[in-house]
Write a structure and sequence with these properties.
Order of helices and strands: HHHHH
Shape: globular
Structural class: mainly alpha
Helix content: 55-70%
Strand content: under 5%
Number of helices: 5
């Protein structure tokens, strides 16, 4: 069973009103991490990483926002498809030890 109502996003204003200092700090942190001055990783790749994380955490709002931002930064459908498959593979692999041991390590 799943639950998702697009109107739930409106409740973010309750967080802002209830804990304004923490909310503003979180938004400032988010802004700095994703697009702050002096970033080494190009914005397109930052957004592709954000898409992968959003797919893993399954946040529909984050998936939509970061997919749109990745497109705006020039990400192609193929790059987004690869990003999706990387996230799927890592999420599937987290279910248990499904890969070979690292080189030099015993089974």
């Amino acid at each position: 069973m799943t639950y998702h109502d697009h109107n739930d996003h409106q409740y973010a204003k309750n967080l802002r009103a209830g804990a304004p200092a923490a909310f503003n700090a979180l938004m400032a942190f988010d802004q700095e991490v994703l697009s702050g001055a002096g970033k080494v990783i190009p914005r397109k790749y930052t957004e592709l990483m954000a898409v992968a994380v959003a797919l893993t955490t399954q946040c529909v709002y984050c998936i939509g926002a970061h997919t749109k931002a990745a497109h705006a930064e020039g990400a192609t459908q193929e790059e987004l498809a690869e990003t999706t498959m990387i996230a799927a593979a890592l999420r599937a692999g987290s279910r248990g030890p499904v890969t070979a041991p690292a080189p030099g390590r015993a089974n």
